[in-house]
Design goal:
The complex is a heterodimer. By secondary structure, chain A is an all-beta fold. Chain A is built from no helices and eleven strands. Classes of the chains: A mainly beta, B mainly beta. Chains A and B meet through strand 5 of A and strand 5 and strand 10 of B.
């Protein structure tokens, strides 16, 4: 069983939709949770970073962490075609290497 | 803006060749990482370095070695390339000593094909 599970998609939504991206994990020691966005033929870039449980909002993006369920989510409001990319969840125990999910490919259709 | 550059975007090599992948960052970051990215497997850590001349094995170090002679440069070496090393290779850097929560900045990647 992988430490981090992420549905690969692809996920296709119409422009303006609310998008929900999710990851589950098995290691209860993970403390730091991140979401990266990767455009085609580019390296990943950090979108959101949270520590422990709770919500964090940044513009159209909201990250949620539920440590009791070992479940993290990224919500994108008013999705735009420019949001079309692969979204990678990532997590770590702190002072250790980062474990990445396999990524979910998102397509926002105009 | 932090910039991480990688020496080649696309590379084609033959089985058994020695391959060098170079990575340079321009923000004086202490930490540098090499990953490979494969469909269905995601990003897997090959090696990382927390300081000049320091290196630590990641999850899949077999068949690879690294060199960090200068703070800004981290090289990945495939001693004898094999077809199962065909992959996208991504270099990353981050600022804080050992602090995982810090942002990792990635380069554009090198698509390596071994024939």
């Amino acid at each position: 069983q992988k430490e981090v599970e992420q549905d690969p998609g692809p996920l296709s939504v119409p422009e303006g939709a609310i998008v929900s991206l999710n990851c589950t994990y098995s290691n209860s020691a993970f403390q730091y949770f991140m979401w990266y966005r990767q455009y085609s033929r580019k390296g990943p870039e950090l979108l959101m970073y949270t520590y422990s449980s709770g919500n964090k909002e940044d513009g159209r993006f909201t990250a949620q962490v539920d440590k009791s369920s070992k479940y993290i989510s990224l919500f994108i409001r008013d999705s735009q075609p420019s949001d079309s990319a692969t979204y990678l969840c990532a997590m770590s125990r702190g002072y250790q290497k980062v474990t990445f999910g396999t990524g979910t490919k998102l397509q926002v259709i105009p | 803006d932090v910039k991480v550059t990688q020496s080649s975007r696309y590379l084609v090599k033959r089985t058994g060749e020695k391959v060098f992948l170079e990575c340079v960052q321009d923000m004086d970051h202490e930490n540098m990482f090499w990953y490979r990215q494969d469909p269905g497997l995601g990003l897997r850590l090959i090696y990382f370095s927390y300081d000049v001349k320091m290196k630590e094995k990641g999850d899949i170090p077999e068949g690879y070695s690294v060199s960090r002679e200068k703070k800004e440069r981290f090289s990945l070496i495939l001693e004898s390339a094999s077809t199962n090393q065909t992959s996208m290779y991504l270099c990353a850097s981050s600022a804080s000593q050992g602090a995982v929560g810090d942002t990792q900045y990635f380069g554009p990647g090198t698509r390596l094909t071994v024939l």
